[in-house]
Design goal:
By secondary structure, this protein is α+β, with helices and mostly antiparallel strands. Helices cover 17% and strands 25% of the residues. The chain has a domain at 17-60: Alpha-Beta Complex (Rubredoxin-like), CATH 3.90.820.10. The chain has a four-stranded mixed β-sheet. β2 (18-23) and β3 (28-32) form a beta hairpin. The N and C termini lie close together (8 Å). The relative contact order is 0.28.
Length: 64
């Protein structure tokens, strides 16, 4: 299951940077880069826009 955190961006609002996270089961999730990493997750070293991070997760999460 892919989980994407965050809401709709309004006009003129700078999109939040995202960090893909990885848990011990090899599952990915995206969350805003300015928030603390949730318990049980670790950053995978990538930061970017939601689209960039989503594309990264699609590329590396190959067992879906």
């Amino acid at each position: 299951m892919r989980t994407y955190h965050g809401g709709v961006q309004g006009a003129g609002v700078q999109p939040r940077r995202r960090d893909p996270g990885l848990n011990d089961e090899g599952q990915y999730s995206l969350w805003p880069a300015d928030l603390e990493v949730p318990a049980g997750w670790r950053p995978d070293g990538t930061t970017g826009s939601r689209d960039e991070c989503s594309a990264h997760v699609d590329e590396v999460w190959t067992d879906m």
